[in-house]
């Protein structure tokens, strides 16, 4: 794993954006794996700036998001679909028919999961996947468990994840308890991965991710087995290393 320690959130976002720009310039029809949460927002801002300056175009790219809450309609203010519209998709030229996010309201969620992976494969697999990390070490919504879930699947969210994400909802009781998430194999099949972490509350998860133990109890630790991961970590998130 290539570990880059940077000063702060802004530098993390800029570095990540440069890797994305390089990917797009090198392969305009890249398949991008995208993430939600506070962490990648700065990356999206930088990419939008590069797009507005005419440096890059997403016209030929395809995007697959990691996850979605089960039970939230697309238009729900806290759905990840809505997050991506507001923070990225409506601000760049990535064609709407190539913006993929799993549906949290599909009637047959097992079929939705199966088809999501199939769709990723049919587009040639993910070239570059961006990941944040949960305080409990989750990636996407792969929560700590006794086993890794390989494929896109429905997951029961951890109490800690529900608490962490409650800040976006009016009340903690409004936070969905289930999500649909790419699995560990889906993520690990990406050709390259960028993991971003900022803030001291991520310190413990980063320390465990890099500790050497590869365990589903700290899902991000599996990234140690991937041949091309760049972890961009700010000083606060790296404070326990
Ligand atoms: C969320 C998402 C993850 C994200 C993580 C951290 O619940 N499912 O993809 O990486 O938790 O979020 P944040 O970046 O807001 O700290």
UniProtKB/TrEMBL annotation:
InterPro entries: Glc/Gal-6P_isomerase, Glucosamine6P_isomerase, Glucosamine6P_isomerase_CS, NagB/RpiA_transferase-like
CDD domains the record matches: GlcN6P_deaminase
Coiled coil (UniProt feature): none
Keyword Hydrolase assigned: yes
Pfam families, per the entry: Glucosamine_iso
Molecular function, one GO term: glucosamine-6-phosphate deaminase activity
EC number: 3.5.99.6
Name by which UniProt lists this protein: Glucosamine-6-phosphate deaminase
Species lineage: Bacteria, Bacillati, Bacillota, Clostridia, Eubacteriales
Gene name, Swiss-Prot/TrEMBL: nagB
């Amino acid at each position: 794993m290539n570990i880059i320690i940077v000063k702060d959130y802004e530098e993390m976002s800029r570095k990540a954006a440069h890797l994305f720009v390089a990917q797009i310039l090198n392969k305009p029809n890249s398949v991008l794996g995208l993430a939600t949460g506070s962490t990648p927002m700065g990356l999206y801002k930088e990419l939008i700036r590069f797009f507005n300056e005419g440096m890059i175009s997403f016209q030929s790219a395809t995007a697959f998001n990691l996850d979605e809450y089960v039970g939230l309609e697309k238009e729900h203010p806290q759905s990840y679909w809505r997050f991506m519209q507001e923070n990225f998709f409506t601000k760049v030229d990535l064609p709407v028919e190539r913006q993929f996010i799993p549906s949290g309201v599909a009637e047959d969620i097992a079929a939705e999961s199966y088809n999501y992976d199939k769709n990723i494969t049919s587009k040639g697999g993910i070239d570059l996947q961006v990941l944040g990390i949960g305080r409990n070490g989750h990636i996407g919504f792969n929560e700590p468990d006794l086993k890794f879930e390989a494929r896109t699947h429905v997951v029961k969210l951890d109490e800690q994840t529900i608490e962490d994400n409650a800040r976006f909802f009016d009340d903690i009781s409004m936070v969905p308890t289930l999500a649909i998430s790419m699995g560990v194999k889906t993520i690990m099949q990406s050709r390259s991965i960028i993991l971003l972490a900022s803030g001291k509350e991520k310190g413990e998860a980063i320390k465990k991710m890099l500790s050497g133990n590869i365990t589903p109890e700290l899902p991000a630790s599996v990234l140690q087995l991937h041949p091309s991961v760049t972890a961009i970590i700010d000083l606060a998130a790296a404070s326990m290393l």
